[in-house]
Write a structure and sequence with these properties.
The protein is of the alpha/beta class. The protein contains eleven helices and twelve strands. The longest helix is centred in the middle third of the chain and has 17 residues.
Length: 327
C-alpha cells in the first residue's frame, strides 16, 4: 500500500485485480484465467504525474484501463475524489467521464475516420455540457489554439493529418472537458522520434496549465524521468517498487528495477554502466509462479521468495519496495 494519506490523494487504487477468462471447446467453458493485474495499490496526488513502467505485457495498460473502468476490474476498489468508482453504475461512471479521460496509444485507431476535427472535439462538450453554438465554437477553438492548431483545420478528417497532428487532436479531445485526471497510455510510442519531444512538451505544458493529475504509462525510462513526479515499476501484473522519480532512479532497490535502469542508454559518452542481464523468460500470466512474481529470474531468490509474496514496504520516505531481501 502507498504511504500517502488517502485523504490527500485524488486517485486511490486499492488491491486492484484484473483476470481475463481462458475459454475452450464448443461450449466456451472457462478453463483458467490470465492474471493481468494482481493486487495493485497506488495513489495519485492532485496535480501530480505518476508513471507506470515495465516490460510489454506487465499489465500497465490494463491497470490504466481498469482504473477508469474501460475494463471492468475483477477485484479491488478505485476511489476518485473520495468516491468509490467500483460501486457506481455504468450510467454514473459515464457522468464521471467529464472529470476522467484517457489518451490512447495509437491515434490512427482512436480517432473516428468518419468524423472531422469539429465533430471529434465538439461531441464531448455536447454530451457533458449545455452550451450555446457560440460557446461551443469558442471552447473548440480555444483548445485548438492550445495544441498548436488553427480553426481552418476544423473541417479536415484524421487521414489528412500527420501522426503528430493526430495525437495532438487526441490530446485535445481528452482535455476539452477540462478533466482533473487523465490516463495517458504510451501516448508517444507510436510516433517518430523527432515528434515525440514536441508531444511530450505539449503534454507537460497542458498538465501544468490545467493542473491535471496524470497517470503516464510508458516503457521508455528516459521519457518517464523527464515527465513524472513519482514512478511505479510493474512486473507480471504486480507493483515491484514505487517512489519519487529521482530517488528511485538514483537508488533503485528492487532487483528488477535495477535491471531495467541498467539497460537505459546514457547521454554521457564517458559514463559506463554495467548492464544487468536477467536470465529466463517472463512467466506465463495464466500460470503465475507462487511467492514473489520475480523469483524465477532473480539472483537473490531464496526459499522465502518462492513461498511468500512480499508486500510493498517503506525503505525511505515515499519509497516502497516489494522484496524480502532489500539491503
Amino acid at each position: 500500500m502507498s504511504i500517502i494519506n488517502p485523504k490527500d490523494a485524488l486517485l486511490d487504487v486499492r488491491h486492484l485485480q484484473v483476470y481475463f477468462p481462458i475459454k475452450r471447446g464448443l461450449m466456451k467453458r472457462v478453463v483458467g484465467h490470465v492474471h493481468a493485474v494482481e493486487d495493485v495499490s497506488f495513489t495519485v496526488r492532485p496535480r501530480e504525474v505518476f508513471a507506470l513502467v515495465g516490460e510489454s505485457g506487465c499489465g500497465k495498460s490494463t491497470t490504466g484501463s481498469a482504473v477508469l473502468r474501460l475494463i471492468e476490474p475483477t477485484g479491488g476498489e478505485v476511489y476518485f475524489g473520495g468516491e468509490n468508482l467500483s460501486a457506481l453504475t455504468e450510467e454514473q461512471v459515464r457522468l464521471k467521464r467529464r472529470d476522467m479521460q484517457f489518451i490512447f496509444q495509437n491515434p490512427y485507431a482512436s480517432l473516428n475516420p468518419r468524423m472531422n476535427v469539429w465533430k471529434l472535439l465538439s461531441e464531448p462538450l455536447k454530451v457533458h455540457f449545455d452550451l450555446s453554438a457560440g460557446e461551443l465554437r469558442e471552447r473548440v477553438e480555444e483548445m485548438l489554439s492550445r495544441i498548436g492548431m488553427t480553426p481552418d483545420q476544423l473541417e479536415r478528417y484524421p487521414h489528412q493529418f500527420s501522426g503528430g497532428q493526430k495525437q495532438r487532436i487526441s490530446i485535445a479531445r481528452a482535455l476539452i472537458t477540462h478533466p482533473s485526471f487523465v490516463v495517458a497510455d504510451e501516448p508517444v510510442s507510436a510516433l517518430d522520434v523527432s515528434i515525440q519531444a514536441q508531444i511530450l512538451n505539449l503534454m507537460m505544458e497542458l498538465q501544468q496549465e490545467m493542473e491535471l493529475s496524470l497517470v503516464f504509462i510508458s516503457h521508455d525510462l528516459n521519457v518517464v524521468r523527464h515527465i513524472s513526479n513519482r514512478v511505479g515499476v510493474m512486473y507480471l501484473g504486480s507493483l515491484m517498487e514505487t517512489g519519487d522519480t529521482e530517488e528511485l532512479y538514483r537508488h533503485p532497490a528492487h532487483p528488477y528495477t535495477q535491471a531495467l535502469l541498467s539497460a537505459v542508454p546514457s547521454h554521457d559518452p564517458l559514463h559506463k554502466s554495467q548492464h544487468i542481464m536477467l536470465e529466463g523468460d517472463v512467466p506465463n500470466p495464466a500460470n503465475p509462479p507462487s511467492g514473489c512474481p520475480f523469483h524465477t529470474r532473480c539472483g537473490r531468490c531464496t526459499e522465502e521468495c518462492r513461498k511468500h509474496k512480499p508486500a510493498l514496504r517503506e525503505i525511505a520516505p515515499d519509497h516502497l519496495v516489494a522484496c524480502h531481501h532489500v539491503e
